[in-house]
C-alpha cells in the first residue's frame, strides 16, 4: 500500500513503537490476546473487528489473504498509517488513492470471509455490533436496518431489480459508490501526537 | 417584469397602510410629547374632555363617547410599530424574487427610511423607545436566544475551536486595528476630529466590528454552501456579539476615565476572560437546571415552553446582575438544554418553543432594522466626511486582513482547511447590523461625539447591508464556493459514519493517542451513563442509526400516503369503511379509542423523536422545515377506494424506494415485532413498541412496476385488511398484480396465497394474532438477499 502518502514522522514512530512494546509486553510480536486486554477498548462495540483488522493480511500486504496470528511492528505501523491525515499538497489522484485505501480498510473490516463481497450476513453482523450499545434494541431491528441498508446499496449500484433477481453482496466497487458522499479524510483520521502518551494508557490487566 | 393586478394590490395596500399608520402615529406623537415631558400635566386630550362639558350646559357631565389615549399609549404604539414591521415583512414576500436578491434587512431598512421620511416631513420625532435598558434587557435576549437555540450543535462542537478563534481573536483584532487606525486619522488636523480620544476611538471601533449574520446565512443556505463555512459564520457572529458587548462595556468604562494606567489594562484583560468564562459556566448551569425541570413537567405540558423561556431569560438577567457576559450565558444555556429538553417535552411544546423563539427573535430584529431606517432620516446627523469614510474603509480592510491572517494561523489545526474562496466568503459576509446600531444608539451622552459615532455606524451598516448584502449572492455563486454534499442521507452513510467514529476511537485507544474523537466518545459515554439518566424522563438510549432509519421509514410512509390522491382517515372512520365492506370481510376487530390514541401518540412521538435529526440548517427568517405538516396524515379523511387506482400513482421516489423493499418476503417487515404498546411490559422497554408502531409494513409486491406500493402503517392493521380487500376487488377488475397486504397481518411468516379471497383469510389469521407477540421469523422465510426466492407472482386470473 502506498505508505509514502501516509507517512508518519520519526518521533511518532518512536512513540508508536513504545506503545507496541507496552502492548506486546516487550516481545517482538503482538498477538490478538494482547490487544484484547486493552481496557479502553472494552466499551467499543466493534472492538473485535478492529482487532481483527490488525491481523488481516489484506491490510498490510497487497493481495494478501487470510489472517495471521501475530504481527510485528512493521505491520502494526502499516495498519496505523491508514489513519494518517493526507498531506495538504497532494494531487487529486493521490487523494483518490488514499480514499480508496481507507475505504478498502473499511471494506476488509466488513468482509470477514475474504471473498471480496460483503454478504448480508456479514453486514448484519456489523450493524448488530454497532447497535449493541444502544440498549433496548432488539436484534430484529438491527437485522431490519441491515436489510434496508443492503437494499439501498442494491438500488444505488444495481438499479431497480427484477423481481426474481437477488443481490449477491456488496462488492468493493459498489462500496465505493455508496460511500461517495462521505468525507473520509476527516472521519478516518487520527492526529498522531508527538508526545508519548503511553504512560497515560491504563495498564491492562494481564 | 410586469406587475399583474394581484401583485399590485397588496403592495399598494401596504403603502397605504404605511402612510396611514405613520400619519396616525404622527398625530399621536403630539399627544405623546407633553405626556413624556410633564407627567403631572394632563395631556391635551383628556384635558379637553374635562373642560369640554362646561361650556355646553345642555350636555350632561358624563360624556357619552370618551377618548382616553394616554392610557393605552405605550402598548398601542409598540403594537403599531410591530404591526407595521410585520406588514413590511409580508409585503416583501409578495414578490418572491425580491427576497432572493435583496436580503430582508435591506428591505426593512428601506421601509424604515420611507417611514422616517414621512415622519420627518411631518416634523415628528421617532419614539424614544430605543433606550439602553430597552435594548439590552428586552430586545437583545430574543435575538441571541434565537441564534443560540437554532445553532446546529454537532457541527458547532466540531468546529468549536475555529469559531471561538474567529469570534474572540477576530473581534479583538478588528476593534483594536480599527481603533488605532482611526486614532491615527484623528491626528490629521484637516479632518477636524482631534478631540476624539483613543478610548473613544476604541469604543467606536468595537461598535462597528459587531458582525451580523442574518443576510449572509440566508444566502449561504440558498446556495448550499458547505457546512464548515456556514457554521463558522454563524458561530462567529453569535460569539462576536458577546465579545463586542463586553468590549463595549469595557471601553465605555475606560472612556470615562481620564487616565488609563497599565494596571487597568491588565485588569481589563483579566476581566474579559472572567466575563466570558463566567457566562459560559452560568449558561451551562442554567441549561442543566432547565433540562432537569422539564423532566418533571410530564403532567403540566402547557407550561413547558414557559419554563424554557423563563430559565433562559433568567440566565440572561442574572448574568447581567453579575456583569458577566449575558449573551454567552443565554447562548450556552440554549445549547445545553436543547438536547435534553427536546426529548422531555411534548411535541407540541417543542413546536411552540421553536415558534415562539423564532417569532420573538425576528420581531426584535425587524424592529431594530426598522428603527435604523427611521432614525437615519430623523436624527440630527453630524457628518464628517473624512472620519466616516475612513471608518468604513478601515472596517472593511481590517476585517479582510483579519480573516486572512487568522485563517493562515488556524488552518493547520483544521482537518478541512479553508481555501481562499471560503475566506472571501467569510470576510465579505461580515455585514454589520442590528447590534451595532443598537450599541451606537445607546451610547451614553457623555461621549462628546456621539452623533458622529451614530452617523458613522449607520453609514457602515447601510453600506455593508446594501452593497455587500446584495452582491454577496452573485459573487459567491460566481466563485463557486464549495458546496455541501447535502444528499439524501442514506442508512449506509449513517452506519458508516458511526463505524468510522468507533473505529477511529478504537484505534486511538489502541495506540494510546487521543484526539477529539476520544473526548467525544468519552463525553457520549458520560452523557449516556449519567446525564441522560438525570435529565431525561424516559431514557432510551437511541442510536443515530436507528433514528435515521425510523426517519427514512416514516418518510417513505408519508410519501406513499401522500401519493394517494385521497386522504387517509383517522382510524375511527376506517371502521365505518369496514362496515361498507362487510361483504368482503369477516367480522373485524374494532378499534378501541384508547388504542387509537395510543397509536396516535406513539406515532407522533416517534416522528417527534427523530425530527431534530432532519434539520441541519436553519434559515434565520423562517423556521426549520418540518415534516410535521405531514403528521396530519392520521387525521384526514379518505376514500381509499379512490386512492387505490393504479393510475393515480405516479412513479416517483416513493415508488423507487418502495421498490427496494418489494423483494422482501412476505410476512416479514424490516421491523418485525409487533406488540402494541399496552401489552408491552416494563421489561421490554418502550422503545420497542415505538419502533414497532413506526415501522412500515411493506407490501409483498413482486412486480417491478410501481403499481401500488401501498405500505400502510403497522398501527392501522385494519387498514391493511380493508385496503387489501378493496385492493383485491380492484385488482380483479383491473388485472393488476395483487399486493399482499393481508400477509402483513399474518404473522406466522408463511407465504400467503394469492387467491382473491385470500385476503379475508389472511385477515382472519391476522385477527387471531392481532394483539399477540409476533413469533420470530422462521427458517422457511425466504429472503432474496440470501437465496433465490422460489415463490412466484400469482398471475391474476383474468389476464
Automatic annotation (TrEMBL), chain A:
| Membrane among keywords | yes
Q: Which GO terms describe its cellular component?
A: cytoplasm; nucleus; ruffle membrane
Entry keyword set:
Calcium, Cell membrane, Cell projection, Cytoplasm, Lipoprotein, Membrane, Metal-binding, Myristate, Nucleus
Spell out the subcellular localization from the entry.
Cell projection, Ruffle membrane; Cytoplasm; Nucleus
Q: Does the keyword Cell membrane apply?
A: yes
InterPro entries in UniProt = CHP3 (IPR052490), EF_Hand_1_Ca_BS (IPR018247), EF_hand_dom (IPR002048)
MF (Gene Ontology): calcium ion binding
Q: Where is the EF-hand domain?
A: 98-133
Q: Where does the chain cross the membrane? A: none
Please indicate which superkingdom the organism of origin belongs to: Eukaryota
User: What protein family does this chain belong to?
Assistant: Belongs to the calcineurin regulatory subunit family. CHP subfamily.
Q: What is this protein called?
A: Tescalcin b
- Species assigned in the record: Cyprinus carpio carpio
TrEMBL record, chain B:
Q: Which residues form the Cation/H+ exchanger transmembrane domain?
A: 83-477
**InterPro entries associated with the record:** Cation/H_exchanger_CPA1, Cation/H_exchanger_TM, NaH_exchanger, NHE_CaM-bd
Composition-biased stretches (Polar residues): 741-751
Query: Any idea which GO molecular function terms this record carries?
Result: potassium:proton antiporter activity; sodium:proton antiporter activity
Does the UniProt entry include the keyword Cell membrane? yes
Q: Where in the cell is it found?
A: Cell membrane
Entry's transmembrane regions: 12-32, 78-95, 101-122, 134-151, 163-190, 202-223, 229-251, 272-293, 313-335, 356-379, 385-411, 423-441, 453-476
What residue stretches are annotated with the Sodium/hydrogen exchanger regulatory region domain? 570-677
Bilayer topology reads: Multi-pass membrane protein
Main localization, broad class: membrane
Region of interest (Disordered), ranges: 37-59, 722-799
BP term (GO), one: regulation of intracellular pH
Give the top-rank taxon of the lineage listed in the UniProt record for this protein: Eukaryota
Q: Which Pfam families match?
A: Na_H_Exchanger, NEXCaM_BD
Spell out the Gene3D superfamilies in the cross-references.
6.10.140.1330, 6.10.250.1040, 6.10.250.2020
Record's keyword annotation contains Transmembrane helix: yes
Q: Which UniProt keywords apply?
A: Antiport, Cell membrane, Ion transport, Membrane, Sodium, Sodium transport, Transmembrane, Transmembrane helix, Transport
Family that this chain belongs to: Belongs to the monovalent cation:proton antiporter 1 (CPA1) transporter (TC 2.A.36) family.
Looking up NCBIfam families in the UniProt record yields:
b_cpa1
Please identify the protein, giving its name as recorded: Sodium/hydrogen exchanger
